[in-house]
Amino acid sequence: MTADFRHFYQKDWAERTALVAEQAQLSATETALFKQHYDPKHREIIENYLTDYAVPMGVAVNFVVDGTPRLVPMVTEEPSVIAAASNGAKIVKRAGGFSTSVSQREMIGQIVLEKVDDVVATTQLIMAQQTALLAVADAAHPSLQRRGGGARQLRIRRLGQGYLSIDLLVDVQAAMGANMLNSMLEAVAKSIGVLTKHNALMSILSNYATASLVRASCRLPVSLLQAGRYSGQLVAQKLVAASTVAQLDPYRATTHNKGIMNGIDAVAMATGNDWRALESGAHAYAARDGQYRGLSTWTLAGKELVGTLELPLPVGIVGGSIKINALAQLNQRLLGVTTATELAKTMAAVGLGQNLAALRALVTTGIQQGHMHLQLKSLALAAGATTAELPVVLQRLEQAPQQDLATTQQLIATLRQSKEETHD
């Protein structure tokens, strides 16, 4: 039987959950999960709301960014991410911590014109009115100017085949700025339509935020990199080689950058920022010269290892869902950041620390050794182990010839049976 989903968005929460349960043939116990994690406020945030989906939150420690200690909240379901970030930060802390810089912080939006026959004349016409068009943008969001921000620049790019992109650069202050930028773009697009007799194909912000670049770096004596039987010098050399491979090979670069974004995304989620926007911008920046490359680089300078990470991080500390997300606001306090720039700098440091820990593990013991205990813990929980049973189950699982779900379930059953026999 197929449920009737017509006008689903107009139905109340109880009707929605009943329809979904009917369609998916959910049991009463399964359906009860919707209510268990239900928050009425959140039905005002997204469409067709059913329930909340929880992701664990922890904190990374040991971070020192520009001389300031930072406690870093991270939201992630992936084991080892927080441990790796803390480990990388601990190594860098012994060398003085991370240094960061931001050259500018502006968001970029596009007004795209199509079927432009005389590109040169249209460009000249628009640029001659740049001051007036910037004023139109500011008038669309006057409160931004009062806070010290506002429209800063127009630039025009020829895309080919009769398309022009008129880029509007805006200082959005403490916000990520998507909504305010889109409002400004639509206002400017109308004025450009009157001016050029070309209607805009679209007006939309770009997530390729090349005017919001952040750089994080660290310098550490190679002696700090020693790992087991591997000398610090050897680890440093191997780490530099791994960095080189990420510059040469897109297959390796993709995984290299995924590790960096493990940390950055987790902080973005914890602070209520749009991690999808950061991901898209970061990967576009990784391919800015025509080949996809690693976002970070590691080099040797005498007896020091030097790491650098640069990427666009257009983040905010106000606006969007942040103002209605109590945990996002609390996490800003944990971080101790008071500006969007401070947040972006800290996130870049987290990405570089994450990368250091990952590469150090890769070129020495391999990543599985560090991951295994956490993976086995996840396996035990998935098999039904309680938190009280975990220590014994993990101990037995580590010694088992096979480490799969069936084996784990059998270990749990055996443990429980032995407890029952003891009580008898």
Report on this model:
This protein starts with 12 loop residues before the first helix and ends with a helix. The radius of gyration is 26 Å and the shape is globular. The chain is α+β, with helices and mostly antiparallel strands. The protein has 4 domains: 1-54, no CATH class; 58-103 and 212-365, Alpha-Beta Complex (3-hydroxy-3-methylglutaryl-coenzyme A Reductase, Chain A, domain 2), CATH 3.90.770; 107-205, Alpha-Beta Plaits (2-Layer Sandwich); 369-423, Helicase, Ruva Protein, domain 3 (Orthogonal Bundle), CATH 1.10.8. The strands form 3 sheets. The chain has a 4-stranded antiparallel β-sheet with strand order 3-8-10-9. A hairpin with a 2-residue loop joins strand 5 (150-160) and strand 6. Helix 8 (232-248) packs across helix 9 and helix 14 packs across helix 15 (405-423). It is built from 15 helices and 10 strands. The chain has helices spanning 13-24, 28-36, 81-93, 119-128, 130-140, 142-146, 178-196, 232-248, 250-270, 275-286, 326-335, 340-362, 367-382, 390-399, 405-423, and strands at residues 57-65, 68-75, 99-102, 107-113, 150-160, 163-171, 200-205, 213-221, 296-301, 304-312. The mean pLDDT is 93. The longest helix has 23 residues, at 340-362. 49% of the residues lie in helices and 18% in strands.
